[in-house]
Amino acid sequence: MVVAERKPIKEILAMMADYKKILLVGCKGCVTVCCAGGTKEVGILASALRIAKKKEGKPFEVIEKTLERQCDPEYIEQVAPIVEGEGVEAILSMACSVGPQYLAKRYNVPVYPALNTTFIGGSLEHGVWAEFCQACGNCIIHYFGGICPIARCSKSLLNGPCGGSAGGKCEVSPEIDCAWHLIYERMKALGKLDELTKIFPIKDWSTSRDGGPRKVVREDMKL
Amino acid sequence: MKAGSRLEKILSSGQFAVTGELGPPRGADVEVIKKKAEHLRGMVDSINVTDNQTSVVRMCSMAVCKLLLEMGLEPNLQMTCRDRNRIAIQSDLLGAYALGIKNVLCLSGDHNKFGDHPQAKNVFDIDSMQLIQTVKQMRDDGKLLSGQECEGVPKFFIGAAVNPFGDPFDFRPIRLAKKVAAGVDFIQTQCIYNMDKFREYMKRVVDMGLAEKCYILAGITPLKSLGMARYMARFVPGLDVPDYYLKRLAGVEKKKQAEEGIKIAVEQIQEIREIEGVAGIHLMAIEWEHKVPEIIKAAGLYPRPEVE
After folding, report:
1. Which of A74, A159, B74, B104 might form a disulfide with B129, Cβ 3.0–4.6 angstroms?
2. What range does the domain containing A96 cover?
3. CB contact under 8 A, A165 and B111
4. Quick check: is A43 in a domain?
């Protein structure tokens, strides 16, 4: 999933400084799963904004709404009556950054992101998420025992651990596992260490963001 | 002869080589470089010029290499993959060769998180292994990665680094084997303090036949003080400083620690010369270049051999 986290309340309040009435939109997709922008988080942020504005003695109205997704135009359409009929001055989105971009494309009011979109990842334990994929556009994890060296090695090395690997940890931080240590142990357990003796060739990054913004086209699904 | 550098000539003639290191200044002062380089003159066969080591911005390695050439000294251009993509790497290699630089050390590079610009976007388009392959392809096939023929082929003596003390230890000789397969000519190791572990590493390397396929130069960094030794032990990832050296330095009074550190380095060099498969030393006297003559002389490595 796309993992995100909410911006600090101070930063969000600064964005909302000039508005008296806003629409706060959550998303029931990834950001609900990673507890950053679902119905619950919309409620919490709305309350925090109201309290802060009240303290400042400024009138402030927040309309709360959580959509199925914010990465599909059909769901974005659902807030049209609110945005266009209720005098909303701005939209604050709690989706990953796709959401606010879709909202901005559809509605003629300023749109703000309440979240920082952090990475494609999964949960490690309750309340902890980690990065697993960098969306390079050409998956190669099967060569590395199912562990992605591009997303999980700090230097995206493809041919083994750098000299900074110590005790299974990355030189960048003891909080980061050395991906190459994990790959080594995994390949050893699989009896496939031989495969790590081969030189992995230079990667073609044109399928990654380096080739420019990407698009997936499925002719078979077009209407 | 692949490149005909002084370093290559000494190594290929079977003589014990000595390389040194020069860290460029955090500014544009040429005098700093000249001063450091003069301490190394006649003491080492080739001088590594670091490439923004620990990700701290310094004068670029290629410019300093050129300054050394002008002084009549042989440089070894360190090149990392951290700050350059394959376009810049190949371009820099062509330029370096055009300036007369014949040795290049292929590195992945310290992560930018450690340096003075942790906010920087890093590159890592290719890794050190692939950088070795790139330099070799340019030299031996006369072709760029694109397949484009080089108008003028850069003939480099290709170096790389290894850390015998990085984990997983069992993978380290395999990683060296990969660097040999990629086309490396010489290796400079990370600073060695744990001699037993280095002996074990070299035994494996020799058993795998790797010492015959590349020249291995053992990395030595003299400890200036107990403080430095403690710092290296605690904060430099992948470095192994055994307690007995810390105790030894702690056992002498503070103003004599530098002297003791030099003694340790000289002893290490003497021990290393006895280890099968070691072709030379790489002396990294960090901000201590003026002590190099003393160390080299005490280790019996002076004078350095003449080459044609």
Report:
1. A159
2. 2-118
3. no
4. yes
In a domain, A125, yes or no: no
Q: How far is CA B21 from the centre of its chain?
A: 7
- Residues A88, A112: one domain? yes
Do A96 and A142 lie in a common domain?
A: no
| Minimal Cβ distance to A166: which of B122, B166, B170 | B166
**All residues at 6 or more sequence positions from A13 whose CB lies less than 8 Å from its CB, including other chains:** A49, A52
Number of domains comprising chain A = 2
Residue A42 lies in a domain: yes
User: B124 falls in which pLDDT band (50, 70, 90)?
Assistant: very high
- Work out the pLDDT band at A81, boundaries 50, 70, 90: very high
B174 to A196: CB separation less than 8 angstroms, yes or no:
yes
CA distance B145 to B57: 28
Residues A114 and A21 in one domain: yes
Look up the pTM and report it.
Answer: 0.96
pLDDT tens digits for range B174-201: 999 999 999 999 999 999 999 999 999 9
- Mean residue pLDDT of chain B comes to 97
Indicate yes or no: CB of B130 within 8 angstroms of CB of A171: no
Same domain, A164 and A99: no
Strand (E) or helix (H) holding B22? strand B17-22
Kindly list the structural domains of chain B, giving each domain's residue range(s) and its CATH number in brackets, ordered by start: 6-298 (3.20.20.220)
> Does B286 have pLDDT greater than 90?
yes
- Is there a single domain that holds both residue A98 and residue A200? no
Of A158, A168, A172, the CB nearest to B113: A172
Whether the predicted pLDDT of A87 surpasses 90: yes
pLDDT at B5: 98
Minimal Cα distance from B115: which residue of A?
A172
Kindly report the nearest CA distance between residue A214 and chain B, in angstroms.
Answer: 19
Q: List CB contacts of A20: < 8 A, sequence separation 6 or more.
A: A58, A59, A60, A61, A89
Beta strands (DSSP E) in A28-137 are 61-67, 90-93, 111-113, 115-125, 128-133
CB A49 within 8 Å of CB A62: yes
**Contact between residue B48 and residue B20 where contact means Cβ atoms under 8 Å apart:** yes
Q: Are B42 and B303 in contact (CB under 8 A)?
A: yes
| A217 CA: distance to closest CA in chain B (Å) | 27
Residues A139 and A111 in one domain: no
Buried-exposed string B62-81: b where 16+ CB fall within 10 A, e elsewhere? bebbbbbeeeebbbbbbbbb
Q: Across chain A, what does the average pLDDT equal?
A: 97
Q: Looking at the domain assignment, is residue A128 inside a domain?
A: no
Query: Are residue A111 and residue A138 in the same domain, yes or no?
Result: no
